[in-house]
Amino acid sequence: MQNEFYIKEGRIIERTEMEKEHELIKTIIKTREDLKAANHNFDYAQDDLIDYYTYQIKANQAKLDYLIKIAKASGIELDMISEMKFAL
User: Fold this and answer.
1) How far is CA 8 from CA 3, 4, 12, 13, 22, in A?
2) Could you tell me the residue ranges of all domains in the chain?
3) Cα(32)–Cα(16) distance, integer angstroms
4) pTM metric for this prediction
5) Closest to 28 measured CA to CA, from 70, 87, 75
6) How confident is the model over 8-59, as pLDDT tens digits?
7) How far is it, in rounded angstroms, from Cα 22 to Cα 28?
8) 3-state class of 11 per DSSP?
């Protein structure tokens, strides 16, 4: 007989629009930083790490493009992202 563990699901709390915008901006900033780091590491990569960083750059760029598309649709401007970055 196998031991089965059940995790009780917590209550989902709906976030406000402002909280969603802040989360989106934070994700954009983090993704931009990850992309910069991947580009920097690619410059010094050797052998198989070149492929790894190439894929990481492509993935982060695709994610960033998607997030920016959502931000534009939500009416978030670049100024809001810059202000949030300095606040963090």
Assistant:
1) 16, 13, 12, 15, 28
2) 21-87
3) 24
4) 0.73
5) 70
6) 666 656 778 888 888 998 999 999 999 999 999 999 999 999 999 999 999 9
7) 10
8) coil
